[in-house]
Amino acid sequence: MTDIFHDIEKAEIEHRLQFDQLVEVLTSSMSHQALCQAADRVRSRFVGSDVYLRGLIEFSNRCQNNCLYCGLRKDNKRVKRYHLSIDEIVECAQIAKMYGYQTVVLQSGEDPVNEPYYPVDTMVQIIQKIKAFDLAVTLSLGEKTYEEYKAYKEAGADRYLLRIETTNKDLYHRLDPGMSWENRHRCLIDLRKLDYEVGSGVMVGLPGQTPEDIANDILFFKEMDFDMIGIGPFIPHPDTPLKNASRDHFELSLRAMALTRLLLPDINIPATTAMETLCPNGRVIALESGANVVMPNVTGIHRKHYEIYPNKAGSRGGSLILKEEVSRQILEIGRTIGTVKGFRGDFLGSQNHF
Ligand code: SAM
Ligand code: SF4
Question: pTM for the whole thing?
Answer without folding.
Answer: 0.95
